[in-house]
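Subject: two folds for Thursday's group meeting

Dear M.,

Sorry for the delay on this. The cluster queue was jammed most of the week, so I only got both jobs back this morning. I'm pasting them in the order they finished. Each block is the input sequence followed by the predicted structure tokens. Could you check whether the formatting survives your parser before we put anything on slides? The first protein is the one we discussed after the seminar.
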Amino acid sequence: MRASLSLLTIALGCWASCASAAAASKEKVCSLRPLGHGRDDTDQVEAAIAKCGHFGTTVFAPGQYNITRKMTWDLVSSRVDLHGSLNFKPDIAYWLDPANTYRVIFIQSQASWFVLTGRDFTVDAHNAGGIAGNGQAWWSFFANRTRADGDGRPVALTLSNVTRGVVRDFRVEGQPFWCNAVADSSEVVYDGMYCNATNADPVWAGQNIVPNTDGINTYRSDKISLLRFDITSGDDCLAIKGNSTNIFAKDITCRGGNGIAIGSLGQYAGLPDIVDNLVMEDLKLIRLDPQVQPNMVSGVYLKTWTGSVHGAPPTGGGGGGGFVSNVVAKGVSVDRVTVPIHLYQTNGGGSGDTPSSLQFSNLTFSDWTGTSLRNTIVDVECSPAVPCPNIRFENVNIAPPNGTAASFKCINVASEFGLPACNATGAA
């Protein structure tokens, strides 16, 4: 509870600081409305941000703003009221050209078409505005093509090098790839984020053709608050990646996909990944109609690459060290997930690989309820090179399928508390 209050204090402090900075700048206001009739709005949007993005307020009237090229908003002590949607043109060949996107996210060379950067700002979309990603064109295009990290599919909204920023009540419809990413940033609050990746192409009904549509990825960032997320996805709802510290997530609803991920970690040899002080509470993971989205894999899962190196990033890698510690996941409801609590350290590897040297410790899973599709409720398989100490389970009450007994697996767990039936040894 103490960790939760500390992180919430950070969130409220950033919120107050950003709001104060925006309030002090209201004398400079830029207002705009969509040009309409299919015309390109990119120039007028960039001109308004250039004029009022520092020490001013920019107000977007309702409607759709057509955006035809990559765009950065450099915001300093300012506010944006985004009542409309930024409509990124569904020209796949154009966006897949590396010259037409930014590469500000180091991990896996991910592409971005829209970047927020700066300090002491608020972007408020009033639960009406945000981004139209035109994802269906992308999902149908890639349904029978090879997909790989770093292939150029753009992240819908990227925060890069932000200090004390707030994104509030923002909606993303049809993210082609990740919905959000926050990288190299600190003291950021997301308060209300809606992302919807739902296939509507009947050709692909019952298949997951929306992979990599993660709700958010955090990377190389500190003091990040993720509040009131509602994510429909075919992949990770939240993904806490390397060097994410002091992260607080609360009131998260995940509809379909792979669950909430810590990782993957250890992809880059020589670049340690650290996740420390992560508190997540009030999490709901809901299985959808399988014709809409067949996946609802995990509640919370943690993963690393092996200690061996196979190829190079963005698609290959391994061999990276680091640690994960002080993680709390509490107040979690799971609806027919495949494996509620899962930890494994063999991502991207094989049976003969060197074990991972990245250690997990001080993990707490408390107040879990709901249902599992398998009778294995907990599957924690740590690396034999760095067994996991202090893994705690409190009030984990998840029902296995009818007629089966719940089972709990702990392999290479140095010390475990709360599950007497869990085999905390080096053998299965």
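Second protein, same layout:
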Amino acid sequence: MATELTLLVGVCDEGDCPTIYATDRGTLAVQGAEITDHGREIPAYETMVEIPIELIRKAIRDNLIQVSG
């Protein structure tokens, strides 16, 4: 069964840009450019993506991500 994704925030409307989704498992999924030259060991079942800091700021401003502190 595929994970259900709900769009939270993105930086464009075309769908092929950095985006944050909420999953039906209570987690976040991040769409972004894969980082291949990071110098870290990443398990085969994981990947590392890069997203703009402004995307996180926008999600917080829009009250999509709760920040405690």
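Two things I noticed about the second structure. Residues 5-61 form one domain. The longest helix spans residues 53-61.

Cheers,
T.
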